[in-house]
Amino acid sequence: MNDKVFTKPIKKQFEFDEEVAAVFDDMLQRSVPFYKESQKITEFFALKQLEDGGVAYDLGCSTATLLINISRKLKKSATLIGLDNSEAMLEQARKKCEAFRADIELANADILEYEYKEADLFISNYTLQFIRPLIREELVKKISASLKKEGIFIFSEKVISHHPKLNKDLIECYYDFKKEQGYSEYEIMQKREALENVLVPYSEDENIKMAKNCGFSHCEVVFRWANFATFIAIK
């Protein structure tokens, strides 16, 4: 289904409700530059990391597309767990898992409060940016503490530049991308207003510093397009 969420005047801040869940896969493809490519990189490292008996979490799994793709290629007996606090997203995820016969555990959960098993891998796709900065670091600490030694955390985030002109140009570059995907100026401005104070991005350096402050020995970017980046942090 095509994303038409912001063709009408917004009445509330952005949330992952039924309307968004119904068009979310289309929204991702048209709103996140090179989304498929960043997901392929995530899949590659996830599949290399998981061994028999391994455990992987996808935090903010939305409609479970990534976990389904990993499940279809996984040749080991590992446990894949998707967590999300949007029941509308999880309803879409359950339907897709059933259609693809994917063996994935899905749970409606608060990722800040959830009791994690010891894991080999955590994934977070554009999820941290929706968590208030004051508690974002606490979650990353919890992720690090739940990982085995040399476990990895793969996370993708929208990023900012602290250079004013460059940051402005990065935003303009991104808006040009969205226009090429068929979004109107009106839709772009509507979504930007809806996300105001809901999505709070860090810079590339701030994300790396956060990971290292939270118990990871190494963190670097493995994919970036303008103001979108995929990071890998190694415990």
Automatic annotation (TrEMBL):
Residues 83-110 form a coiled coil. SUPFAM superfamilies: S-adenosyl-L-methionine-dependent methyltransferases. GO terms for biological process: tRNA wobble uridine modification. It holds the Pfam family Methyltransf_25. CDD domains: AdoMet_MTases. Its EC number is 2.1.3.-. Keywords: Coiled coil, S-adenosyl-L-methionine, Transferase. InterPro entries: CmoA, Methyltransf_25, SAM-dependent_MTases_sf. It catalyses: prephenate + S-adenosyl-L-methionine = carboxy-S-adenosyl-L-methionine + 3-phenylpyruvate + H2O. S-adenosyl-L-methionine binds at residues 35, 60-62, 84-85, 110-111, 125, 192. It is an enzyme of class 2 (transferase). GO terms for molecular function: carboxyl- or carbamoyltransferase activity; S-adenosyl-L-methionine binding. It comes from the Bacteria. Residues 58-151 form the Methyltransferase domain. Catalyzes the conversion of S-adenosyl-L-methionine (SAM) to carboxy-S-adenosyl-L-methionine (Cx-SAM). Belongs to the class I-like SAM-binding methyltransferase superfamily. Cx-SAM synthase family. This is Carboxy-S-adenosyl-L-methionine synthase. It comes from Sulfurimonas crateris. The gene is cmoA.
